[in-house]
Amino acid sequence: MSELLAPAVRLDDRFARALPELALPWQAEEAPEPDLLLLNEPLAAELGLDPAALRTPEGVGLLVGTAVPDGARPVAQAYSGHQFGGYSPRLGDGRALLLGELVDGHGAVRDLHLKGSGRTPFARGGDGLAAVGPMLREYVVSEAMHALGIPTTRALAVVATGRQVRRETLLPGAVLARVASSHLRVGSFQYARATDDVDLLRRLADLAIERHHPHAAQAENRYLALFEAVLEVQASLVAQWMLVGFIHGVMNTDNMTISGETIDYGPCAFLEAYDPDTVYSSIDEGGRYRLGNQPLAAEWNLARLAEALLPLIAEDTDRAVALAVETLKTFRPRYDAALADGMRAKLGLPADADTAGLVDDLLELLRAGHVDWTSFFRRLADAARGDAEPVRLLFLDLAGIDGWLERWRALGPDGTAMDRVNPVYIPRNHLVEEALDAAAAGDTTLVEELLAVLAAPFDERPDHERYAAPAPQDFGATFRTFCGT
């Protein structure tokens, strides 16, 4: 590694040292012709990395895992998971590596992680590779989520490898370098629990407390407090997804973080016309992870975390179950409260406004009218300022929306406050697909333009109307997203 890069990159192996049973030392595959497609320079600076150094051949080598700093020990992490309800005892990083941990400019520990870096022993028949399109999708959508203020892993870079990847056709290959507060998942705890090694489970829980929920260490029952803390951050996270119309698409237990960050942007998409039954994921044939089922899926996943933690919560199994169930029962009230608070903000209403009937009636109007979720709330701010015509144009049922607007305006909505929480720009599915298609053909211009718009989602800008417009009418009926493996 060059002298320019080496002093600035110090990767620790604290996860591998603390939990060797969950860390398989491994090396990334060589990239025949690495080509840096995108580099997140603001994130690099936040991490204390020199963007100019990352653009050198040695820096690009770091971003694909072939030029690792001295002292770093890349590992594939082991975890289990329920995938669409079916338990897989040994999933793990089949095409990913944790390069190590670094300390950012705020003193926080962050994981530097690769996706698409080649087969590991966890690959289960997969090729361990990734294509340019899905890696750029994760870059675009995760950065959009960050700009929206939603907890998320973040993308540091996408590097084309110069290798072709076979999916339905041959596609250009890529590696994503991403950053997270950690990659501890519900599935990590399921794996540790399945070993019947209580010491391993305890060490994993203690690491999670230290890294993400240190207040739990002061509780009388620290492991029950850890479960409650994860439940709290997940209730908040899923409510935020629902408020912006984000559909994860593959909410398996290995894709739920202990930190409360959104992870793994495979078959994800953003809602267009409101319908709680919306599914975009090609692999979610039964609609398990449809929009309206996301809170139920999160609650189910948390029940699996509770099962894994039982030996730590109490020595007596019946007592442990009782404590875990009582805590799990608080998920729905916490989620409902977070969603209600968020809806009041989207509607520009004070925190003490009674919106239960108002929101229910609105959702039915939106569903019946096939109204675009994002456009509605942005136009509604104009109605708060006295101009209702932009929002009325979205509806055929004018009597219905007029009656609803009258009830809403009686509560004194604040249009300026609404503009601060209702985005103008989200990663519109048709724009993402358009940009990814161009990038797969070698032109990242549209991706870069889209990223620039999404970086300031609440600020309406002239000459950017296409980024705020809903998809063409026939787009949503056939649009499907894919996991990329």
What this model shows, in words?
By secondary structure, the protein is of the alpha+beta class. Among the domains are: 6-180, no CATH class; 186-340, no CATH class. It has 19 helices and eleven strands. It has helices at residues 14-18, 41-46, 51-54, 57-64, 132-147, 186-194, 198-212, 222-244, 294-313, 317-328, 331-346, 356-369, 373-384, 389-392, 398-409, 415-421, 429-440, 445-454, 465-468, and strands spanning 23-25, 35-39, 75-77, 81-83, 86-88, 96-103, 109-115, 154-166, 170-180, 246-247, 269-270. A hairpin with a 3-residue loop joins strand 8 and strand 9 (170-180). It is globular. The mean pLDDT is 94.
Write the layout of secondary structure elements.
Blueprint lengths: L13 H5 L4 E3 L9 E5 L1 H6 L4 H4 L2 H8 L10 E3 L3 E3 L2 E3 L7 E8 L5 E7 L16 H16 L6 E13 L3 E11 L5 H9 L3 H15 L9 H23 L1 E2 L21 E2 L23 H20 L3 H12 L2 H16 L9 H14 L3 H12 L4 H4 L5 H12 L5 H7 L7 H12 L4 H10 L10 H4 L17
Helix pairs in contact: 5-17, 5-18, 6-7, 6-9, 7-9, 8-9, 8-10, 8-11, 9-10, 12-15, 13-16, 17-18
